[in-house]
Amino acid sequence: MQKFLTARWKDLIMANYEVDPSILIPRLPAGTELDLQDGKCFVSLVGFMFLDTRVLGIPIPFHVNFEEVNLRFYNKREVDGETRRAVCFVKEIVPRFAIATVARVMYGEPYECWTMSHERTETTVSYDWSKGGSTNHLSVDIGESIGVPAAGSHGEFIIEHYWGYTKRGDSRVDEYKVEHPKWELFSVKNDVIDVDFGATYGEEFAFLAGQKPYSVLLAKGSEVAVYKGARINS
């Protein structure tokens, strides 16, 4: 497989919410099923930095370093006895119009361009994104390193998904592979999640604004490679 995109993902805040599977089933790409952990279904609000971004090995001027915030859920597909554990995106927000447009038009990914900013100090990480009347904020205070999560743990479930599926119309589904080493996690304190979920991600997710997350994680991140996608039979 050909590496389509390489980058470094850094300071990933992951706010994870347990939800009723019924709100996600209509969004499932054909040929996949929801991936549950101990019977629990999760969506994750993820804010992180996209750094040293290269497409087919080439850096695109003014599009190398930027923020991304996405809302994602977890699915899987069985292929010749292999379980491909994956993520599927409700919406991906970036501050670069060209990136959002190309990803949406050429690859069917649900990208949008919003005004974004971030702050990183020795003790805090924060992301802000706004558009129109919707202003959103996600931040944590950084605690101690808790290392690479143990096999079978909640932390492993959230970060160890190495495939992606994109629904492109009624009959087409694209599959792509993501490669990165296992991530070190940090405990977090004083998390602030001030997000207009309904206006940003759809009314079916509005209830998350009043729901306490099941967990909030902070991953150090790493170098990442995204391989060129392929159409699968649905």
Report on this model:
The protein is mainly beta. The chain has one domain: Acetoacetate decarboxylase-like. It contains 3 helices and 15 strands. The chain has a 7-stranded mixed β-barrel with strand order 1-3-5-6-11-12-14. A hairpin with a 3-residue loop joins strand 11 (163-168) and strand 12. The mean pLDDT is 91.
Q: CATH homologous superfamily, by name?
A: Acetoacetate decarboxylase-like
Structural class: mainly beta
Calculate Rg over CA atoms. Answer: 17 Å
Shape: globular
Beta-strand residue percentage: over 45%
N-to-C span: 21 Å
| CATH top level label | Mainly Beta
Average the pLDDT over all residues and give the rounded result.
91
Instruction: Provide the spatial order of strands within the biggest beta sheet.
Output: 1-3-5-6-11-12-14
**SSE string, helix = H, strand = E?**
EEEEEEHEEEEHEEEHEE
Output the number of helix runs: 3
| Unreliable residue stretches | none
Largest sheet: 7 strands, mixed, barrel
CATH architecture: Beta Barrel
- Assign the CATH topology: Acetoacetate decarboxylase-like
- How many separate domains make up the residues? 1
- By DSSP, the count of extended strands is 15
Overall helicity: under 10%
Task: Write a brief structural summary.
The chain is mainly beta and 234 residues long. Helix content is 9%, strand content 56%. The chain has a single domain (3-232), classed as Acetoacetate decarboxylase-like (Beta Barrel).
